[in-house]
Write a structure and sequence with these properties.
heterodimer, A: alpha/beta, Elongation Factor Tu (Ef-tu), domain 3, Rossmann fold, 2 domains, 7-stranded mixed β-sheet, 9 helices, 31% strand, globular, B: alpha/beta, Fumarate Reductase Iron-sulfur Protein, Chain B, domain 2, FAD/NAD(P)-binding domain, 3 domains, 5-stranded parallel β-sheet, binds flavin-adenine dinucleotide, binds iron/sulfur cluster, binds FE2/S2 (inorganic) cluster
Chain lengths: 285, 497
């Protein structure tokens, strides 16, 4: 049982939960994730990256966007409520090293897992350029935190409602073209963005790490549901990743695999909406 | 085989039993051999392929006693030799024949702590029933005494009568033991070590304990409430169970010994790493490991479309690759999830299939179509990256290999294409590398299993292991047997200090 000690609404669909998980708070490292399940009997298990942790308070911070049934149910929990199952920390930690100049590119909700990595990169003595992107102003998260960390900060939105009206790849290309060019790029966001970032850095031969968000069940290497093709080989995101060399990842396959249960999910999300509405109505009746 | 309805099986048995009992002379061996082998009552195939309930319904009292009367009470008891945990088989069978089920279960429990489970899932035809004198005399191994079904009968009788009591626990010793995993090996160690009064904590990565018994073997073969009751017994004995705890990540094995003060650790982490074929198209949408498919269906209960939130792929035509229990389970589960056709593809012949004969028979009765001496060459996808077919190659049996089994040899240019929308890969499992990767000094054999001595000791002092993590994917009874030995060694070690 994990109590939600703090619940914040970051934007329309994006929530921040600080939850009790003392063992995970103690052992987690940047880049790692947890698997969360709100109901032991019938709930779905979903992976969420650990955005932050406080070993003294024994809490971890999760940031998630409501995209389907499971995240909708998670978002419906109140502050002080409990999440039945949290497993972790899972996956390999990010390899943090002093390389020189690092560009961190975050898209949408991907900024949440990017934050601890940026922090660690900075702490390791790297010069840090941060590029954040979102569809629109309302969906930008952790702007001030990321700005505070970075030596150079670039913000863009698709619709130009805030910052530069551009996709993240535009400023990224400019940064890559500078001399000296960056030594390392870390990109976390929707797969289509990570793919574009990898294509942008490829001609410059800049090592590019991406963090993949595949479908998972156990998160411990037992099912292979999370497998992706990297450099022509099958890898399990939950144990071999979640981070991989962006230039080697088969993003088309990843995106296709992410849509495996799309029709089912839409239906489930629909049903979840109805159920939650009924609960609301009953409360008021 | 023709289907017989459960009531009539029991009625016929009752009549037969009454006739035998009306006689005063004890039965002669010849007469015992003439008693017909008792058929297991089952749900009719066309019904059960659409539901998740247990297929085999269990003997009624008359059927059980009649089957028990078939036993010749051999002095040398070859069946006991065939039993990995050496249950006193003739004695428990006699107790059933003489209508003393309470005594029967007590005899079984001297050697096995999970009889309701083993009676259902053990490969009896290669163990206790293989050397049975009755089968030998009748020149038909299938006509051996149904030892497994009688074991199940005794265990079910005890449970249904509410007679099962948790074993007694000796006074607390102040020692504590960590058990990693919650499959049959770990359940056995937890019970045997706890009995001696040592504190036991069981660590399980999943949100529910039970290991493969829960996430792998389906409800229709092993009802989950039976596994849950075994776990409940552990709780009643005072075993602490911590779910959502991955040793190696949440905490390392060394942390348990050094920081958390455990006096001993048992590793029963199983063989949970699915093998793939490494063929073209294996990462297409619609290709699953049997582990994933069965975990979604069993542990996450995806068969319960009304309530479960975990999705499962809606298949029409399924190809299952493999010939073991896992393959049979996946194939039969696919039918229950709603597939119209399920094709099982195996590269040898039925004689070489490692699955229990009963599961093979059940799969066929339910309509799984067998394609023997064939194997997948590659999986074909459509423009959305979804499976649209599988290309197969035909094989023939060649020279015997080291194990004496005739090796399948590919027939050149024998390719054929089968249209399917789902492929389930069930070609085996290897030990999960997580613990060995995070525990320096743990000695590993080829294939990733842990090296242990005959008492289950690993290369690290105070650390023991058993079950599939040592044997590779094996069986429930062997896992239990290994757990027994390791627990005895742990108890001896803790008594010395
Ligand atoms: C589908 C299927 C059908 C089968 N059918 C039969 C059958 O009919 N008859 C038969 O005899 N055998 C059968 N088997 C094999 C049998 O189930 C296994 O041999 C047996 O369960 C092994 O027991 P175990 O205790 O070693 O491990 P498991 O039952 O595998 O349990 C291991 C447990 O450890 C947990 N774990 C792993 N790593 C960690 C970690 N680092 N930290 C915490 N927990 C961890 C896992 O989550 C798992 O719950 C079948 C197997 C499968 C998959
Ligand atoms: S071998 Fe068969 S007949 Fe003989 S004691 Fe064992 S079960 Fe009975
Ligand atoms: S989530 Fe099951 S193996 Fe990765």
């Amino acid at each position: 049982m994990h109590r939600i000690v703090e619940k914040k609404v970051l934007s329309d669909e994006v929530f921040l939960y600080r939850i009790e998980a003392p063992l995970i708070a103690e052992s987690r490292k940047p880049g790692q994730f947890v698997i969360v399940q709100t109901d032991t009997e019938y709930g779905e298990r979903i992976p969420l990256t650990i955005a932050d942790a406080d070993p003294v308070a024994g809490t971890i911070t999760l940031i998630f966007q409501v995209v389907g049934d499971a995240t909708h149910r998670l978002a419906a929990l109140p502050e002080g409520g409990v999440i039945e199952n949290v497993l972790g920390p899972l996956g390999r930690p990010t390899h943090i090293e002093h390389v020189g100049m690092v560009v961190c590119v975050g898209g949408g909700i991907g900024v949440a897992p990017l934050h601890p990595i940026a922090q660690a990169m900075k702490r390791a003595g790297n010069r840090l350029i941060v590029i954040l992107g979102a569809r629109t102003e309302k969906l930008i998260i952790l702007e001030s935190e990321m700005r505070a960390l970075s030596d150079e900060f670039i913000l863009c939105t698709d619709d130009g409602s805030r910052g530069r009206k551009a996709l993240v790849t535009e400023p990224l290309r400019e940064v890559c073209a500078r001399t000296p060019k960056p030594d390392q790029v870390v990109a976390i966001g929707p797969p289509i963005m990570m793919k574009a970032v990898s294509e942008t850095t490829r001609p410059f031969a800049i090592p590019t790490i991406v963090s993949l968000n595949s479908i998972m069940v156990d998160g411990t290497g037992m099912c292979g549901g999370c497998r992706v093709t990297v450099g022509g080989q099958t890898r399990f995101v939950c144990v071999d990743g979640p981070e991989f060399d962006g230039h080697e990842v088969d993003f088309t396959n990843l995106m296709q695999r992410l849509r495996t249960y799309k029709p089912f999910e839409d239906q489930a999300h629909e049903r979840c909406h109805l159920e939650l509405q009924i609960q609301e109505l009953k409360k008021h009746a | 085989m023709t289907y017989s309805n459960p009531e009539s099986l029991e009625r016929i048995a009752r009549e037969h039993l009454a006739e035998l009992e009306s006689r005063t002379e004890p039965l002669k061996p010849k007469e015992r051999l003439r008693i017909p082998p008792q058929v297991m009552p089952e749900q009719p195939p066309e019904e059960r392929r659409h539901n998740i309930r247990e297929v085999a319904l269990g003997y009624g009292p008359a059927q059980a006693r009649l089957e028990a009367l078939r036993c010749l009470q051999c002095k040398n008891a070859p069946c006991v030799e065939g039993c990995p945990v050496r249950i006193d088989i003739p004695s428990f069978i006699r107790a059933i024949a003489e209508n003393r089920p309470e005594e029967a279960i007590a005899i079984i429990k001297r050697n096995s702590i999970l009889p309701a489970i083993c009676g259902r899932v053990c490969p009896q035809e290669t163990q206790c029933q293989a050397p049975c004198t009755v089968g030998k005399s009748l020149k038909n191994i299938a006509a051996a005494v149904s030892i497994g079904r009688l074991e199940r009968y005794a265990a079910d009788w005890e449970r249904e009568m509410g007679r099962a009591k948790p074993p007694e626990v000796k006074p607390e010793t102040g020692r504590k033991v960590a058990v990693i995993g919650s499959g049959p090996a770990s359940i056995t160690v937890a019970a045997d070590v706890r009995r001696e009064g040592h504190a036991v904590t069981m660590f399980e990565a999943f949100h529910k304990p039970g290991g493969v018994l829960l996430y792998g073997i389906p409800e229709f073969r092993l009802p989950k409430r039976i596994v849950e009751e075994e776990i409940e017994t552990l709780r009643k004995m005072g075993v602490e169970i911590r779910t959502n705890f991955v040793v190696g990540r949440t905490r390392t094995l060394n942390d348990l010994l050094e920081k958390d003060g455990y006096d001993a650790v048992f590793i029963g982490a199983g063989a949970g790493l699915p093998k793939f074929m490494n063929i073209e198209g294996e990462n297409l949408v619609g290709v699953f490991s049997a582990n994933e498919y069965l975990t979604r269906a069993n542990l996450m209960r995806a068969y319960d479309r009304e309530r479960a939130r975990t999705p499962i792929y809606p298949s029409r035509k399924v190809a299952v690759l493999g010939g073991g229990n896992v393959a049979m389970d996946a194939a039969r589960m696919a039918l229950r999830i709603g597939a119209a056709e399920v094709h099982l593809i195996y590269r040898r012949t039925e004689a070489e299939m490692p699955a229990r004969v009963e599961e093979v028979a059940h799969a066929k009765e339910e309509g799984v179509q067998f394609h023997l001496l064939q194997n997948a060459k590659r999986i074909l996808g459509d423009e959305y990256g979804r499976v649209r077919g599988i290309e197969l190659l035909r094989y023939e049996l060649g020279e015997p290999d080291d194990s004496g089994r005739r090796r399948p040899v590919v027939i050149p240019e024998s390719e054929l294409v089968m249209e399917v929308d789902t492929v389930i890969v069930a070609i085996g499992n290897e030990p999960n590398p997580l613990i060995r990767q995070t525990t320096p000094g743990l000695q590993i054999a080829r294939g990733g299993t842990l090296v242990v001595d005959e008492d289950g000791r690993t290369s690290i002092p105070r650390v023991f292991a058993g079950g599939d993590i040592v044997l590779g994917a094996a069986t429930v009874i062997l896992a239990m047997g290994e757990g027994r030995r390791a627990a005895a060694a742990i108890n001896a070690m803790l008594a010395e200090k």
